[in-house]
Amino acid sequence: TPEQAARMKKLQEQEKRQKVEFRKRMEQEVSQFIQATGEPRRRFQPMNKIERSILHDVAEVAGLTSFSFGDDEDSRYVMVFKKEFAPSDEELEAYRRGEEWDPARAEERRRLRELAAQQEEAELERGPAPPGPPNDYKDKYRHLIGSEAAKAAARTMEANKAYGCVPVANKRDTRSIEEAMNEIRAKKRLR
């Protein structure tokens, strides 16, 4: 109907006006931020997707770096950084986790990472550990076997004559393998 179309057009114009006003307000805030000397970054209030995109555009035109942070749509906010204070990857990660950026703590973490890397490098230079178990099983079971038991057992060990290679003289069956196989085949044929 024509009334709905007119109402719709009026709403669209109102929305457009609101966006233009919001953009002007953001341009003013961004220019104030640029002129503020002691402020390397500014965090804006949470805003909806359209407002965030307008603010990102204003920041880009002004030559600033901007990022959005926050988990859900209601709490997402924009942070604007001056180019000379562009955030490091660590700083961005802290904001993404919802933490406040602390340069001193970040420096401490970086130092610990460097130290760990140096230790790892030193271990690699030392080379692999010698093969073999780290301890001797005899030490572990000394209370059971004593310290002389293994040596005495090793001395008395002799090869078992009934086990392993049997000399031909001790074999009951003196046929060769071929002869035995031929006999088996002949029996099968008779059946």
TrEMBL record:
Region (Disordered): 92-140
Feature: compositional bias, Basic and acidic residues: 93-114
Ranges where the R3H domain occurs: 20-83
SMART domains named in the record: R3H
Cited Pfam families: R3H
GO molecular function terms listed in the Swiss-Prot or TrEMBL record: nucleic acid binding
Lineage top rank: taxon: Eukaryota
PANTHER family for the chain: SPERM ASSOCIATED ANTIGEN 7 (PTHR13498), SPERM-ASSOCIATED ANTIGEN 7 (PTHR13498:SF3)
Protein name, per record: SPAG7 protein
Higher taxonomy: Eukaryota, Metazoa, Chordata, Craniata, Vertebrata
